[in-house]
Write a structure and sequence with these properties.
The chain is of the alpha/beta class. It folds into three domains: 140 residues, Rossmann fold, CATH 3.40.50; 119 residues, Serine Threonine Protein Phosphatase 5, Tetratricopeptide repeat (Alpha Horseshoe); 170 residues, DNA Cyclobutane Dipyrimidine Photolyase, subunit A, domain 3. Helix content is 48%, strand content 7%. The protein contains 20 helices and seven strands. The strands form two sheets. Strands 5-4-3-6-7 form a five-stranded parallel sheet, with helices on both faces. Helix 10 runs antiparallel to helix 11 and helix 15 packs antiparallel against helix 16. The radius of gyration is 24 Å and the shape is globular. The structure holds flavin-adenine dinucleotide. The site of flavin-adenine dinucleotide has 29 residues, from helix 9, helix 11, helix 14 and helix 16. Flavin-adenine dinucleotide binds next to helix 9, helix 11, helix 14 and helix 16.
Length: 480
């Protein structure tokens, strides 16, 4: 018997279901977990597959966030008298072993949409058929899956604005009611391993990553809707201001659910002034971008390897290794780009305005293939989400779903003057530039008061205007 929102629910005591945790590391508002808890006693399960860790391209920031969130999840389960069963090994072998050890009647989990995750899901479904047990999957990572948001003729949207218009008309699921899962007696006897350290995964870290786990995520969400949401539309583009929600790592690892975020923002905006309602609308639109890119990857999985517009696979990128290194290390000589790259390396997070600027700089000033940058971001981000990362990179490179994007080329110095006018963000990450005034700091090579060598700051690796023309020529050769 279990208690859900004051209602007593009877269930078959013998029924046992495995809940497979993936990127849904939370107990509240977890669709598959709640469904399993309503029907049966639950075995909470997580598999650390070393092969997957090696192959999926994430680095220490992602894994540190993930492991810390798992640690919290495991502690919360213990508090409820349950246990997280953690195993290391190949997914299917571990899943089959656990199913045999527990005599489970089924496996429940939430769906993900990147090709490797879809492949895992198909294999687990095959295992279920082989074992003769139920495998049930749930929509949880997004509000709407690709199949729900269709054009009048039933095809997938490939352009954001009409997609967003349709998405907004659809009814959104409410957060799932909290449920305390019943614990099968066998759970106490099952083998589980200790959470590995980053070192065990072959990674080291002294990163200042965002606070991980469900509690930190929910606190962040509460504070954001209370204190910052009403000004979001005014502040979200300024990296020196704490104006965005910073929820991306939580949404990526599932320490906070997308339903909780959507409904909290919607409710807070509805209660506010007309200005606050407008800001809330701008925020919700950002969540639509996440869903848009998720469905682009799900429906056109080839974007994980090549350009959404296949003609651009023929672009002749210059791919200079020394420029790529300068970009990665924050030594391009363009202060806001360099400050952004240092924020990424040291914290595993980068402000959206800067992600757009740094990615456009790599592709359209340094003429380096967007896939190089995509890979590097994935390795450094704590919120590395294949769909959003790929979508962001193809947007900046001009190879993606946007209608006429390739001639949109940001000037790094102009972006810097506009979005970090006082140079506050730049000074935070590039202390060498502190002596420069707000007028000088965006293009240090133009001021003659202090030599660059004295500031310990490099000459620009390229001339923006020259490179801009080269990029246009590179695209024109394809479009001709
Ligand atoms: C080149 C590039 C790479 C990116 N890589 C990732 C990535 O790996 N993972 C990731 O979550 N986001 C990625 N983004 C999108 C965006 O930059 C981040 O989601 C955002 O900066 C996270 O900060 P926040 O939570 O404070 O955002 P907020 O402004 O508070 O937005 C709220 C939420 O909306 C979603 N969102 C906002 N903007 C976008 C966007 N442009 N595309 C998709 N979702 C969005 C995120 O889930 C975010 O947490 C990338 C963008 C670019 C240009």
């Amino acid at each position: 018997m279990l208690r859900a929102e004051g209602i007593l629910v009877w269930m078959d005591r013998l029924k046992i279901l495995i809940h497979w945790f993936r990127r849904d590391l939370r107990l509240t508002d977890n669709t598959a977990l709640a469904a399993a808890g309503r029907e049966a006693a639950v075995v909470p399960f997580y598999v650390l597959d070393p092969e997957r860790v090696r192959m999926d391209g994430h680095g220490p920031a992602y894994w540190q966030f993930h492991l810390e969130s798992l640690r919290e999840l495991s502690a919360k389960l213990e508090k409820q008298g349950s246990r997280l069963i953690l195993r290391e090994g190949a997914l299917l072998a571990e899943m089959e072993r656990l199913a045999a050890e527990t005599g489970a009647n089924g496996i429940f989990f939430n769906r993900l949409y990147e090709p490797a995750s879809v492949d895992q899901e198909q294999k687990v479904a095959g295992l279920g058929r082989h074992l003769g047990i139920e495998v049930r999957t749930f929509k949880d990572y997004v509000l709407h899956e690709g199949g729900e948001v269709r054009t009048g003729s039933g095809s997938a949207y490939t352009i954001f604005t009409p997609y967003a218009k349709k998405w907004e008309t659809l009814t959104k699921a409410r957060p799932v009611k909290a449920i305390r899962c019943s614990v099968p007696p066998i759970l106490k006897k099952l083998r589980t391993m200790r959470l590995p350290s980053l070192g065990r995964l072959g990674m080291s870290s002294a990163l200042r990553i965002p606070a991980a786990g469900e509690k930190a995520g929910l606190d962040l969400l509460r504070r954001f809707v209370r204190e910052r949401l009403a000004g979001y539309d005014q502040t979200r583009d300024f990296p020196a201001v704490d104006g965005t929600s910073r929820l991306s790592p939580h949404l990526c690892h599932g320490t906070v659910s997308i339903r909780s975020v959507y409904h909290a923002a919607l409710a807070a905006a509805a209660k506010g002034t007309p200005r606050a309602r407008r800001a809330g609308g701008v925020y919700l639109k950002e969540l639509v971008w996440r869903e848009f890119f998720s469905q682009v990857l799900a429906q056109f999985p080839f974007v994980g390897r090549g350009c959404f517009r296949p003609q651009y696979d023929r672009l002749k990128w210059r791919n200079r290794e020394d420029w790529f290194l300068a970009w990665r290390e924050g030594r391009t000589g363009y202060p806001l780009v360099d400050a952004a790259m240092r924020q990424l390396r040291e914290t595993g997070w980068m402000h959206n305005r800067l992600r757009m600027m740094a990615s456009m700089f790599l592709t359209k000033d340094l003429l380096i293939d967007w896939r190089w940058g995509e890979r590097y971001f994935m390795e450094k981000l704590a919120d590395g989400d294949m769909a959003s990362n790929n979508g962001g990179w193809q947007w900046s490179a001009g190879t993606g779903t946007d209608a006429a994007p390739y001639f949109r080329i940001f000037s790094p110095a102009r972006q810097s003057r506009r979005f970090d006018p006082g140079g506050v963000f730049i000074r935070q990450w590039l202390p060498g530039l502190v002596p420069l005034s707000a007028a000088e700091i965006h293009a240090p090579w133009l001021q003659k008061r202090l030599p660059l060598a004295k500031l310990d700051f490099p000459e620009p690796v390229v001339n923006h205007e020259v490179q801009r023309q080269k990029t246009l020529d590179m695209f024109d050769r394809i479009n001709r």
